[in-house]
Write a structure and sequence with these properties.
Layout lengths: L15 E5 L4 H12 L3 E6 L4 H10 L4 E5 L5 H15 L4 E4 L14 H28 L3 E6 L12 H21 L4 E8 L5 H4 L3 H10 L8 H12 L10 E4 L7
Parallel strand pairs: 1-2, 1-4, 2-3, 4-5, 5-6, 6-7
Amino acid sequence: MNSAGRDRSAEFAGRVALVTGAAGGIGRASALELAARGAAVMVGDIDERGEATAREIREAGGLAASVVVDVGDAESVHAMVDATIAEFGRLDFAHNNAGVSAIGRTADLEPEQFERVIRVNLLGVFHCIKYEIPRMLEVGGGAIVNTASMWAFTGSAGKSAYAASKHGVAGLTRTAAVEYGAEGLRINAVAPGPIETAMTRAAPDDLMARIVEHTAVKRIGAPEEIARAVAWLCSDESSYVNGTVMPVDGGWLAS
């Protein structure tokens, strides 16, 4: 049984998934969820810590490998996708999740800080879908899920670089979906609200308390709750969902 309480262990049998930023947090949870549903998973991360996630999948009886990738570098991403094909023979799903943040009012940020966030969060997603799309089309299509954010719909003081990058992810997701939908490829994004990750743990406690209080459910989310949304967007159950940026935010946007 997977975390949703229903036996889906063969749902993605014979399929291959690629997840970036998968050493921890949402990416790790996504890799584990996709593997629990039967997919072989390539775990991508900026350093070798991603191997721990791949090992956890293998120890549970699944198929997984890991690769070190810098999503901000096109050749590194190209090599990651090629490594996935070399290891597993195909690519059906991708969760482009790697991301960073920078905190500070807009005029206080250094250009290098702003550029790093855009490079990883937005250019990184572009690099991923650029090289994932042709491989998915080779097998008749597939599903890509990008990680946006609740900040893809609004602004937030101190998060100009992050909000700009996630607005960009939303626009890129919608545009690519329009371009490739007729070829059997669905491209969507999840927009997480406050989730228990290293990024939110690094935020000031008073800020996180205000954000969580603004949610309808009055609690912080778990990475696994985002992972189940990602898996649903990859599944045939969402076969008519394309080009959406889906909030998974405990009702934060609704409040």
